[in-house]
Amino acid sequence: MKIASFLTALAGVAVVLPGAAAVAQTAPTTVEPMIPAAGTVLDVTAEGRTTRVPDLATIRAGVVSQSTTAAAALTDNAQRMAKVLAALKRAGVAPRDVATSSVQLAPQYRYAENQPPVITGYQATNTVSIRFRDVAKSGAILDALVAEGANQIDGPNLSIDKPEAALDEARSDAIAQAKHRADLYAKAAGLRVSRIVSIAESGQDTGGSPQPMFLARASMAKDSTQIAPGEKDVTVTVSVRFLLN
Q1: Is residue 153 a contact partner of residue 146, using CB atoms and an 8 Å limit?
Q2: DSSP secondary structure string, 173-186?
Q3: Closest Cα partner for 56 from 94, 107, 86, 83?
Q4: What is the rounded distance in angstroms from the CA atom of residue 41 to the CA atom of residue 189?
Q5: Using one digit for the tens of pLDDT, what is the confidence trace for 12-70?
Q6: How far apart are CA 63 and CA 79, in angstroms?
Q7: Model-level pTM?
Q8: Is 242:44 a contact under the CB 8 Å cutoff?
Q9: Which residues pair with residue 152 across a beta bridge?
Q10: Single residue among 107, 127, 159 that ends a domain in this structure
Q11: What angle do CA 115, 120, 124 make, to 5 degrees?
């Protein structure tokens, strides 16, 4: 019996004829589903997406102190960091949202030609990672930290605190996209979609690279730090195998 074949160049889609080996998937799967004995198999990879405004900002704030002795550098650093932590507490940041990320003490050197390095002092650094659950207020809190002695700011990393609902929306969209594409190819080939043979989730992304605006203070007198959360795309990729008749 002559076997008709329908191939397409579009990425993520392949048609497998009865009895033929399965076409390689874009993403590896643990178990390869069995190809039905009758009918044409169509493999579709589809991406579903939805959009969310980030509701969690993570920022690293640190205190850098320098002194002629290691003990003096550490003492000064500890005192200033205590004020920073007190400012966070006054701002309502929960203890569970503040974590020490690094503590460093390093000598400072003076270099001269043809001379060994000479220690001129010491630098102490203490950095904490802070999660702000109210992104709109995070800029004002950062200003308060700087006023209390924080002199090193890194961030923000904006994310979605509870992404499961958004991921479920993206999953539904991915399946809808896969079904639409399967109907399109079946119609073009003079066939119809009989059923779904298998579904595999091959990837998800709850926002990718952060895309915020982090505007540094221009003046200590009246300007304040502003953090604009923007939006994040939440995506899910699925691989769906259809049986065409």
Answers
A1: yes
A2: HHHHHHHHHHHHHH
A3: 94
A4: 12
A5: 444 444 444 444 444 444 445 556 667 899 999 999 999 999 999 999 999 999 999 99
A6: 10
A7: 0.66
A8: yes
A9: 62
A10: 159
A11: 135
E-state strands within 7-79: 13-16, 40-52, 56-67
- pLDDT 10s digits, 67-124: 999 999 999 999 999 999 999 999 999 999 999 999 999 999 999 999 999 999 999 9
**Whether 62 and 143 share a structural domain:** yes
Q: Which residue is associated with the tokens 């929306």?
A: 169
Contact by Cβ (8 Å): 91, 63: no
Among the candidates 139, 159, 179, a domain finishes at: 159
Find all residues with CB under 8 Å of 137, minimum gap 6, and list them.
91
Domain assignment present for residue 216? The answer is yes
Q: How far is CA 96 from CA 56, 88, 102, 114, 133, in A?
A: 14, 12, 17, 51, 12
Separation CA 196–CA 186 (nearest Å): 13
Q: What is the DSSP string of 70-96?
A: HHHHHHHHHHHHHHHHHHHHHTT--GG
